[in-house]
Amino acid sequence: MKTIVCFGDSNTWGYSPSTSGRYPFEKRWTSILQKKLGSDYFIIPEGLNGRTTAFEDPVEGDKNGLRHLQTILEVHKPLDLIIIMLGTNDLKERFNLCAEEIAKSAGNLINYTLRNGSGINNNPPQILFIAPPLVVESPNSGCSFRNSVEKSMGFSKFYKEKAEEFKIPFLDASTIISSSPVDGIHWEEKEHEKFAVTVAEKVREIIS
Questions:
Q1: What pLDDT is attached to residue 41?
Q2: Which SS3 state, helix, strand or coil, does residue 9 take?
Q3: Residue 167: CB partners within 8 Å, gap ≥ 6?
Q4: CATH architecture of 2-207
Q5: Is the Cβ–Cβ distance between 191 and 198 less than 8 Å?
Q6: Where are the domains of the chain?
Q7: Of the candidates 129, 126, 134, 139, the residue with the CA atom closest to the CA atom of residue 155
């Protein structure tokens, strides 16, 4: 059985923009991914609302992804693959970061994982690096995500460059799904299905 950790934020957690609650287990992309890949794979969802790539949040508290990653790798080792998709919450105005800086911070997650013996036989696990989708205009996005639409347009370019730097597989979520206009950030149910289908194809390609 291949063990895969999905490391992300509220979209990996399964946040519903329509209800401000959580999608049922079977509707989340991580659960659909498990179903698509079958019993030869063990999918471990590690999503957290508000998680950043590597920054402490003065408003929401314990959200530092880099610090969380260190524990998660140790808890779930040995891993065959970790899927990393973080950066949307770094767009919040209080962090004052551009897309290039966010990609560099996300690159620290890759660097740490590659230096960590949490894979098979104390090797690093394989990594699938995913650029978060574009933020879209919404009257409900709130002041935290002011100016985030334009900044998120740089994710595709800078995340891809970071994946090429580390020579790891890459997906651009903005080519697969769209964020909901309800809040500009989270995904409608149908997008979880579409995303899982594409990720499943990529996972099979990587592990084969």
A1: 98
A2: coil
A3: none
A4: 3-Layer(aba) Sandwich (3.40)
A5: no
A6: 2-207
A7: 134
pTM of the entire predicted model:
0.97
CA distance 13 to 73: 18
Question: What amino acid is encoded at 172 in this protein?
Answer: D
Whole-angstrom distance, CA of residue 50 vs CA of residue 52: 6
Of 115 and 141, the structure prediction assigns the larger pLDDT to 115
Predicted pLDDT at 198: 98
pLDDT tens, position by position, 62-74: 999 999 999 999 9
In b/e form, how buried is each residue of 171-196, taking b as 16+ CB within 10 angstroms? Answer: bbbbebbebbebbbbbbbbebbebbb
Quick one: which of 17, 32, 20 has its CA closest to 188? Answer: 17
Task: Report the alpha-carbon angle 207-24-45, nearest 5.
Answer: 30
For the chain, how many helices (H) and strands (E)?
A: 7, 5
